[in-house]
From TrEMBL:
Its EC number is 4.6.1.2. Keywords: cGMP biosynthesis, Cytoplasm, GTP-binding, Lyase, Nucleotide-binding. The keyword Disulfide bond does not apply. It is an enzyme of class 4 (lyase). Pfam families: Guanylate_cyc, HNOB, HNOBA. PROSITE patterns: GUANYLATE_CYCLASE_2. InterPro entries: A/G_cyclase, H-NOX_domain_sf, Heme_NO-bd, HNOB_dom_associated, HNOB_dom_associated_sf, NO_sig/Golgi_transp_ligand-bd, Nucleotide_cyclase. One of its GO terms (biological process) is response to oxygen levels. This is guanylate cyclase. It comes from Acanthoscelides obtectus.
Length: 551
C-alpha cells in the first residue's frame, strides 16, 4: 500500500491519542518506519499491525481501529483535493458507489502500483443497497466500511450503517486469492430511487413514439463493438472486427469471447457474464488478440472467406484479400488493438453489447495498427485526437503498467541478487573468518589481518567406524560425512566457535580466535557435548552407526 494511507493513520493517531501513544504503538507493532512517504509502497501488514497494537494499548477492538483508520484516510485525503473527485461522480451516494472502480482507475496515473479493490452494487432500494467488495487483501473489510461511513457523512450528509452479509474466498484470474464480501449499506436512498423513476418516466415519454431499430445500427455507429450472450460467446460484431478476421464471420461468431479478447480493465476480475452485467457503469478496456483472429482466418477454408464483405475485397494471385490487410506501412496481425468503452445490457436479445472505440494516440500508432482515420468511430472526438496527437489516459496507464512490470522484475532481480550475495558470503565465511573477510572488504592490507592469540582452545573431532570398500560404499560414506559435518556447522555459531577446516574424517574448530573470548574452553566443551548428542540422534543416509572421538 502507498504511504499516504499510513500517513493518515499517523496524523490522526498523534492528533487524537498523543505522540507518546504513537511511539508506543510503533514499538509494539514492530514497525521500523518513523515517518511515511506519500508515494512509497509499504507492506500491507503494517496497517493491521498498527491496529492490533492500538487495540492492545487501549480498550477498543481491532475491528474498531480498522474502521477508524478508514475514516482517517477520508479525512486526510481532502488535503490533496481528492474529495472534489468524489463529489463530481454524482449527486447521490449511490452514484459514487457505482463509480468507485472508475475513480481507482483514474488514480492509477498518480499511483501506478496501487492494488485497488473492485466494487459493484447488486440490490438497490430506498433503504440502501448491497455492495460486493472484492480484494486480494485480507482483513481490510472494516477499513472499507470506515471509509464508506465517513464519505457518506462528510460529503453526502448521510447516516450510513454497514454490516457484513456474506463473505467467501475465490481465485482471481492471476491465480491469487480473492476475498469477496457482501456488505449491506443502510442509508436514506429515497431521493436516488425517486430520481431514477422520474428519469425513466421522462425517457419513456420522449422515446415511446420512436420505432424499434436493429442492432446493425449500433454496429454501424460502433464498428469495433461486440455483442455476446450469457454463455460468453460472440453473437454479433462491428464491421471493423469482421475485417480483422479477413471478413469471415465464422471466425468470430459463435466463438468463445476469451479466445480472441483479453480483459485488461477492470483489473483483478474474471471476464464473466456476471461481472460484465454488474459493472455496466465501469469503463472496460479489452485487448483484441489479432494474432489469434488472423490465425483462425488463415486456418479457415477459402470458401468461408466469401461473405458480406465480398464486394470490398480484391483478387491477388487467386486469393481474396481485404483492403484492410493491404496497408504496406503496417504490420497487421502483430499488434493488438486496445478497445475502451462500456457494457450495455440489451434485454430484447438477452445479450451484452460492448460499445467501444480503439485507443489510438497519434498518427504513428494508427499506422502501426494498420488502421485509417475513417476506420474509427464516426462520432466523438476520436479522429480529432489522433490528428492532434493528444495524450490518451489509457495509453499513459498502459505505459504505467509496463513500468510497473519492469519495476517488479527489477525488485525480483534485487531479491535474487541478495540471495546469491548471502550464499556468496556464507561460502566466503566458510573459508575465511568473518572478521577477517570484513576487514579485507573495507580495504585493509592482508598483512594487517595477521594476529597472534595467547589463549585459545582447539578441538579435533574424528569420525570413527567409517570405511569404504566399493564405489557404492564410497558414495554412502561421502553422504554420511556430509550430513554429520553439516550438522556440526550449524552448531558452531551457537557457541561462538569457528570452524577451521575438515581433513578427511577429521573436523577442526577453534574458540578464542579470530575473535578473542575469555570462555573459549567452556564453549569448546559445550559444543563438543552437543555434537556428541546430535550424532547419536542423527539418522544417517547409509544407516551406518557413526561414533566420534573428540580431543
Amino acid at each position: 500500500m502507498y504511504g499516504m494511507l499510513l500517513e493518515s493513520v499517523q496524523h490522526f493517531v498523534q492528533l487524537e491519542y498523543g505522540e507518546e501513544v504513537w511511539r508506543k504503538v510503533l514499538a509494539l507493532s514492530g514497525c521500523k518506519y518513523a515517518v511515511f512517504n506519500t508515494h512509497q509502497v509499504y507492506p500491507d501488514n503494517i496497517m493491521a499491525s498498527l491496529a492490533s497494537a492500538l487495540a492492545t494499548t487501549t480498550s477498543n477492538s481491532y475491528e474498531s481501529f480498522m474502521m477508524f483508520f478508514g475514516k482517517c484516510f477520508v479525512r486526510f485525503f481532502s488535503n490533496y483535493g481528492y474529495d472534489a473527485t468524489i463529489k463530481a461522480t454524482g449527486r447521490y451516494f449511490t452514484d459514487f458507489l457505482d463509480n468507485v472502480d472508475n475513480i481507482h482507475s483514474q488514480f492509477r496515473l498518480s499511483y501506478p502500483k496501487m492494488k485497488s479493490p473492485s466494487m459493484y452494487l447488486t440490490d438497490v432500494d430506498e433503504n440502501g443497497c448491497i455492495l460486493v467488495y472484492r480484494s486480494q487483501r485480507q482483513g481490510f473489510t472494516h477499513y472499507v466500511m470506515g471509509q464508506l461511513e465517513q464519505i457518506a457523512n462528510e460529503i453526502y450528509n448521510l447516516n450510513l450503517n454497514t454490516s457484513v452479509v456474506d463473505q467467501e474466498i475465490s481465485t482471481a484470474p492471476s491465480g491469487k486469492t480473492l476475498y469477496i464480501v457482501n456488505l449491506r449499506l443502510n442509508f436514506d436512498n429515497s431521493h436516488y430511487i425517486e430520481s431514477k423513476k422520474a428519469a425513466k418516466a421522462t425517457h419513456l415519454q420522449l422515446t415511446s413514439w420512436l420505432p424499434a431499430f436493429s442492432c446493425d445500427l449500433l454496429f454501424e455507429l460502433f464498428p469495433f463493438a461486440v455483442l455476446f450472450d450469457p454463455a460468453m460467446t460472440v453473437v454479433g460484431c462491428g464491421g471493423k472486427l469482421l475485417e480483422l478476421a479477413g471478413g469471415c464471420k465464422e471466425q468470430l461468431l459463435r466463438q468463445p469471447l476469451d479466445n480472441m479478447f483479453k480483459l485488461r480493465r477492470p483489473k483483478g476480475i474474471a471476464f464473466t457474464w456476471k461481472n460484465a452485467f454488474y459493472l455496466k457503469s465501469v469503463m472496460f478496456e479489452i485487448e483484441v488478440l489479432r494474432s489469434e483472429i488472423m490465425k483462425k482466418a488463415d486456418d479457415a477454408p477459402k470458401e468461408s472467406s466469401k461473405n458480406i464483405l465480398l464486394e470490398q475485397e480484391i483478387e491477388i494471385d487467386g486469393k481474396s484479400i481485404s483492403p484492410y490487410t493491404l496497408r504496406r506501412d503496417s504490420t497487421p496481425g502483430l499488434k493488438n488493438i486496445l478497445l475502451k468503452g462500456q457494457m450495455y445490457y440489451l434485454q430484447d436479445v438477452i445479450g451484452i453489447i460492448y460499445l467501444c472505440s480503439p485507443v489510438i494516440n497519434n498518427i504513428s500508432e494508427l499506422t502501426d495498427h494498420g488502421l485509417y482515420l475513417n476506420d474509427l468511430n464516426p462520432h466523438g472526438l476520436g479522429r480529432e485526437m489522433v490528428l492532434a496527437g493528444w495524450q490518451n489516459n489509457s495509453k499513459l496507464q498502459y505505459m504505467f503498467d509496463k513500468a510497473e512490470q519492469r519495476a517488479t522484475e527489477l525488485e525480483n532481480n534485487y531479491m535474487l541478487l541478495d540471495t546469491w550475495k548471502r550464499r556468496g558470503d556464507d561460502l566466503l565465511y566458510s573459508m575465511i573468518p568473518k572478521s577477517v573477510a570484513d576487514r579485507l572488504r573495507t580495504g585493509h592490507s592482508p598483512l594487517s589481518t595477521c594476529e597472534s592469540f595467547d589463549l585459545v582452545t582447539v578441538m579435533f573431532c574424528e569420525l570413527v567406524g567409517l570405511n569404504s570398500t566399493t564405489v557404492q560404499d564410497a558414495m554412502e560414506l561421502v553422504s554420511t560425512m556430509n550430513a554429520v559435518f553439516s550438522c556440526f556447522d550449524s552448531l558452531m555459531d551457537t557457541y561462538n566457535v569457528y570452524k577451521v577446516e575438515t581433513v578427511g574424517q577429521i573436523y577442526m574448530a577453534v574458540c578464542g580466535a579470530p575473535e578473542r573470548n575469555e570462555n573459549h574452553a567452556q564453549n569448546i566443551i559445550d559444543v563438543s557435548l552437543c555434537m556428541a548428542k546430535h550424532v547419536k540422534q542423527m539418522q544417517m543416509p547409509s544407516r551406518a552407526k557413526v561414533d566420534i572421538r573428540i580431543g
